[in-house]
Design brief:
eight-stranded mixed sheet; 14 strands; single chain; 419 residues; six-stranded parallel sheet; 15 helices; alpha/beta; 20% strand
Length: 419
Amino acid sequence: MLYNIIGGDKMKLFKRENYLSKIRGFYHTNDIIKVITGIRRCGKSSLMQMIADEIIESGVNKENIIYINLDKKGFKSIKKADELENLIDSFSNVKGNKYLFIDEIQNVENFEEVINAYREEDEYSIFITGSNSYLLSGELITKLTGRYIEFEMFPLTFEEYLGMKEFYKYDINSNLLIELNNYIIEGGFPRTMFFDDLNDKRTYVKGIVEEIFKKDIKSRCVIRKKDTFDLVMNYIINNFGCTTSINNILENLNKSGLGISKTTLLRYIKCLIDAKILYECDRFDMKSKRSLLGEKKYYIADLSFSYISNPNSRINYGPVLENIIYTYARSKSYTVTVGRIGKLECDFILKDKELNYSYVQVAYTILESKKTEDREYNSLEMIRDNYPKYVVTTDYLLQKRNGIKHINLMEYLKTGSLF
């Protein structure tokens, strides 16, 4: 073994540089816990192995790396804080600074006390992962406020999808629009790339959803009727990217004969968001500079979800391209909202960590008619500040209009530097 990897595997890994670059500055920081969150199977375990490898490559002795995967056979029985502590202590005789990696730590009850105790010893640089929002709630917030940093992971972006195909020597079509369609249909869960058959890919993704329900939803949420919960989940997944409200969702579900209360609907949606199947995108009024109550948009963690809930659906490029931009922007640490300007809507307002803004309209094409072109440009032209404005399409013939940048989605996503 290259290091004390407990319950894990070693393999040649495609580097997720977008996330590694965010974490490298904290590799040797003992007083701050590094928390990696993200939907199950998006690559958190592999990322931690990459980090461990880089730390060893920097000159740290491999015996000083302790990697515990609590989701692996033989370690699933570790459910209590003292059991975890005893496991870690079995490696505590190693001299020098130690690097502690614990995968799926939310499996252990009261893990916060254990992690905080090792942090206070100042001999451990600690990295932990979790697959749901409960990891960053309750006791962890209370005990570790200001002492941890969250790094949120997502399934593969289009850039990473192409990079991973190249890394594992899969053929890449020179027509990037074909590759974009492949990415949309196959989804971005890294493991799906190793299945040749599309049905096998979808079976794998269906298994992810079932695993999320069993491990992240059922154990945390009160779900009295699984069939009702599935109907709610499938309804929202099939309508991702649409502006809606809880009342509209409730009305449409009850029209179909479901018979669900608003309280239950709200609880089910929260469960889906906490499990990172859904992301909630608020709407922002650009004149009043206030968030709009009620209407929101929901995006999905991975586009493959829409095909397992509706296998025969055709690609609806409007919401699909929005979803791609949304998860891309979130993976780059942008805050994302939907903008309203009078009666018009700006698909996305992006805000970076330096509080710089950019505005984005997304469409499959603007070349089919002047009306389509005007629809995408008009809302951006009403914004009076000097922050960058983008119209993002699959077009290769690009236009110039009033300082607004018209860019090709595939070419810029391929480089990983869209905005």
